[in-house]
Amino acid sequence: MMEFKNEELIEREMEIAEYLVQDFSLNHIAETTGINKKLVMVHIRNMMKKLNAENMSTLIKVLKEKLNHL
Asked: Residue ranges of the alpha helices (H) in 1-51?
């Protein structure tokens, strides 16, 4: 089980998280949020650090658990 750091996700990260758990592509997330793909990746890397996720599949699993408990 992953443990969350004390840092909370910022609003933009939460928005991207919701798209990730719905299996949207990075290009689709970028288009939908109005930011470029590189910035989407920056937010994803930040979420991975905050949530101690080693890879994208772990991140998505952790995000699904986190979003289900909100």
From this structure: 11-21, 26-33, 37-50
